[in-house]
Amino acid sequence: MWHNSFGKRLSKQNQFPMFNKSNGENQPGRVLIKVMRRSGLTSQRRPVTQREKEYAMERAQRFKSERPFTVKAMKHNDVYASYFMIIPDKFVKTFLPKESRKMTLWDPQAKPWKVWYEYTGGECPRAAFSAGWGALAMENNLEKWDVCVFELLDQEYNIKLHVQKVVLMITPCILAPKPRTNE
Protein backbone atom coordinates (compact mmCIF):
# COMPACT_ATOMS: atom_id res chain seq x y z
CA MET A 1 0.00 0.00 0.00
CA TRP A 2 1.43 3.36 -0.97
CA HIS A 3 0.62 6.59 0.88
CA ASN A 4 1.52 10.24 0.53
CA SER A 5 2.62 12.29 3.51
CA PHE A 6 -1.03 12.90 4.48
CA GLY A 7 -1.94 9.20 4.49
CA LYS A 8 -3.82 9.34 1.17
CA ARG A 9 -3.42 6.22 -0.97
CA LEU A 10 -1.31 6.62 -4.09
CA SER A 11 -0.67 4.46 -7.09
CA LYS A 12 2.95 3.54 -7.70
CA GLN A 13 3.09 6.11 -10.48
CA ASN A 14 2.02 9.03 -8.25
CA GLN A 15 5.04 10.65 -6.72
CA PHE A 16 5.74 14.01 -5.22
CA PRO A 17 8.90 16.09 -5.56
CA MET A 18 11.64 16.12 -2.98
CA PHE A 19 15.11 17.62 -2.98
CA ASN A 20 18.04 15.45 -2.06
CA LYS A 21 21.35 17.03 -1.14
CA SER A 22 24.20 15.52 -3.12
CA ASN A 23 27.78 16.80 -3.40
CA GLY A 24 26.77 19.99 -1.64
CA GLU A 25 24.05 20.85 -4.18
CA ASN A 26 20.31 20.39 -4.07
CA GLN A 27 19.07 18.01 -6.74
CA PRO A 28 15.46 17.26 -7.60
CA GLY A 29 14.34 13.77 -6.75
CA ARG A 30 11.27 11.71 -6.12
CA VAL A 31 10.25 9.78 -3.07
CA LEU A 32 7.71 7.10 -2.27
CA ILE A 33 6.57 6.21 1.19
CA LYS A 34 5.72 2.58 1.70
CA VAL A 35 3.96 1.45 4.83
CA MET A 36 5.37 -1.87 6.01
CA ARG A 37 3.67 -4.01 8.60
CA ARG A 38 5.38 -6.94 10.24
CA SER A 39 3.35 -10.06 10.61
CA GLY A 40 3.03 -11.29 14.15
CA LEU A 41 1.25 -14.14 15.83
CA THR A 42 -2.41 -15.07 15.97
CA SER A 43 -3.96 -16.81 18.94
CA GLN A 44 -5.56 -20.21 18.43
CA ARG A 45 -6.95 -20.17 21.95
CA ARG A 46 -10.68 -20.22 22.56
CA PRO A 47 -12.32 -16.90 23.49
CA VAL A 48 -11.58 -15.74 27.03
CA THR A 49 -14.38 -14.83 29.43
CA GLN A 50 -14.40 -11.73 31.63
CA ARG A 51 -14.45 -14.00 34.68
CA GLU A 52 -11.27 -15.80 33.49
CA LYS A 53 -9.51 -12.44 33.03
CA GLU A 54 -10.51 -11.36 36.53
CA TYR A 55 -9.50 -14.68 38.07
CA ALA A 56 -6.02 -14.60 36.46
CA MET A 57 -5.53 -11.07 37.84
CA GLU A 58 -6.76 -12.14 41.29
CA ARG A 59 -4.29 -15.05 41.35
CA ALA A 60 -1.42 -12.74 40.35
CA GLN A 61 -2.39 -10.15 42.95
CA ARG A 62 -2.18 -12.81 45.67
CA PHE A 63 1.56 -13.11 44.91
CA LYS A 64 3.69 -12.34 47.98
CA SER A 65 7.40 -11.54 48.15
CA GLU A 66 9.79 -9.53 50.28
CA ARG A 67 11.36 -8.37 47.02
CA PRO A 68 9.88 -5.60 44.84
CA PHE A 69 7.49 -6.78 42.12
CA THR A 70 4.88 -5.52 39.71
CA VAL A 71 1.86 -7.12 38.04
CA LYS A 72 0.79 -6.67 34.42
CA ALA A 73 -1.87 -8.24 32.21
CA MET A 74 -0.46 -8.90 28.76
CA LYS A 75 -1.79 -6.82 25.89
CA HIS A 76 -1.88 -7.60 22.17
CA ASN A 77 1.40 -5.82 21.34
CA ASP A 78 3.19 -7.44 24.30
CA VAL A 79 2.72 -10.96 22.98
CA TYR A 80 1.51 -11.05 19.35
CA ALA A 81 2.91 -8.14 17.37
CA SER A 82 5.55 -5.57 18.30
CA TYR A 83 6.88 -7.38 21.39
CA PHE A 84 7.42 -4.04 23.10
CA MET A 85 6.25 -4.69 26.65
CA ILE A 86 5.74 -1.45 28.57
CA ILE A 87 6.62 -1.82 32.24
CA PRO A 88 4.29 -0.20 34.81
CA ASP A 89 5.52 3.34 35.50
CA LYS A 90 5.61 3.17 39.30
CA PHE A 91 7.88 0.11 39.22
CA VAL A 92 10.20 1.81 36.71
CA LYS A 93 10.45 5.03 38.74
CA THR A 94 11.05 3.26 42.05
CA PHE A 95 13.16 0.20 41.28
CA LEU A 96 14.62 0.06 37.78
CA PRO A 97 17.67 1.77 36.24
CA LYS A 98 17.45 5.21 34.68
CA GLU A 99 19.28 4.12 31.55
CA SER A 100 18.73 1.61 28.74
CA ARG A 101 20.65 -1.64 29.16
CA LYS A 102 20.53 -5.42 28.88
CA MET A 103 18.75 -7.24 31.67
CA THR A 104 18.13 -10.89 32.48
CA LEU A 105 14.60 -12.20 32.89
CA TRP A 106 14.18 -15.66 34.40
CA ASP A 107 11.16 -17.54 33.08
CA PRO A 108 9.02 -19.90 35.23
CA GLN A 109 11.31 -22.82 34.29
CA ALA A 110 14.35 -20.83 35.56
CA LYS A 111 15.68 -20.30 32.04
CA PRO A 112 17.53 -16.98 31.66
CA TRP A 113 16.60 -14.60 28.83
CA LYS A 114 18.66 -11.57 27.86
CA VAL A 115 16.30 -8.72 27.00
CA TRP A 116 16.81 -5.08 26.17
CA TYR A 117 15.43 -2.66 28.76
CA GLU A 118 14.56 0.54 26.89
CA TYR A 119 14.40 3.59 29.20
CA THR A 120 13.03 6.97 28.17
CA GLY A 121 13.69 9.66 30.76
CA GLY A 122 12.17 13.10 31.06
CA GLU A 123 9.24 14.35 33.10
CA CYS A 124 7.30 11.12 32.52
CA PRO A 125 9.94 8.38 32.48
CA ARG A 126 8.82 5.21 30.71
CA ALA A 127 10.47 1.87 30.11
CA ALA A 128 9.81 -1.31 28.19
CA PHE A 129 11.32 -4.67 27.39
CA SER A 130 12.05 -4.91 23.67
CA ALA A 131 14.71 -7.08 21.98
CA GLY A 132 14.58 -10.57 23.46
CA TRP A 133 11.14 -10.12 25.00
CA GLY A 134 9.38 -11.56 21.94
CA ALA A 135 11.38 -14.79 22.06
CA LEU A 136 10.65 -15.19 25.76
CA ALA A 137 6.93 -14.51 25.20
CA MET A 138 6.71 -17.05 22.36
CA GLU A 139 8.71 -19.75 24.16
CA ASN A 140 6.51 -19.40 27.24
CA ASN A 141 3.26 -19.32 25.23
CA LEU A 142 2.25 -15.95 26.67
CA GLU A 143 -1.04 -14.67 25.32
CA LYS A 144 -3.25 -11.64 25.69
CA TRP A 145 -4.81 -11.44 29.17
CA ASP A 146 -2.22 -13.75 30.77
CA VAL A 147 -1.02 -11.94 33.89
CA CYS A 148 2.70 -11.68 34.61
CA VAL A 149 4.40 -10.85 37.88
CA PHE A 150 7.87 -9.34 37.46
CA GLU A 151 9.89 -9.87 40.65
CA LEU A 152 13.16 -7.94 41.01
CA LEU A 153 15.71 -10.41 42.38
CA ASP A 154 18.81 -8.29 42.94
CA GLN A 155 20.78 -5.09 42.28
CA GLU A 156 22.00 -6.53 38.97
CA TYR A 157 18.41 -6.26 37.72
CA ASN A 158 17.72 -9.96 37.38
CA ILE A 159 13.95 -10.32 37.21
CA LYS A 160 11.93 -13.48 37.83
CA LEU A 161 8.82 -13.90 35.68
CA HIS A 162 5.78 -15.55 37.27
CA VAL A 163 2.85 -16.28 34.93
CA GLN A 164 -0.83 -16.71 35.67
CA LYS A 165 -2.38 -18.12 32.50
CA VAL A 166 -5.88 -16.85 31.76
CA VAL A 167 -6.64 -20.21 30.10
CA LEU A 168 -4.65 -23.13 31.49
CA MET A 169 -4.80 -25.23 28.33
CA ILE A 170 -1.94 -24.06 26.11
CA THR A 171 -2.75 -23.73 22.43
CA PRO A 172 0.32 -22.57 20.47
CA CYS A 173 -0.05 -19.38 18.45
CA ILE A 174 0.44 -19.40 14.69
CA LEU A 175 2.07 -16.88 12.40
CA ALA A 176 -0.38 -14.26 11.22
CA PRO A 177 -0.79 -14.03 7.46
CA LYS A 178 1.56 -11.49 5.89
CA PRO A 179 -0.11 -8.31 4.71
CA ARG A 180 -0.43 -8.00 0.96
CA THR A 181 1.44 -5.28 -0.87
CA ASN A 182 0.67 -3.78 -4.26
CA GLU A 183 4.00 -4.66 -5.84
From TrEMBL:
Keyword Nucleus found: yes
Record localization: Nucleus
InterPro entries for this protein: B3_DNA-bd, DNA-bd_pseudobarrel_sf, REM16-like
Keyword terms of this UniProt record: DNA-binding, Nucleus, Transcription, Transcription regulation
Listed GO MF terms: DNA binding
CC per GO annotation: nucleus
Main location per the UniProt record: nucleus
Keyword Magnesium: no
Residue intervals of the TF-B3 domain: 70-167
A Pfam family it matches: B3
PANTHER family (UniProt xref): B3 DOMAIN-CONTAINING PROTEIN OS11G0197600-RELATED, TF-B3 DOMAIN-CONTAINING PROTEIN
Stated name of the protein: TF-B3 domain-containing protein
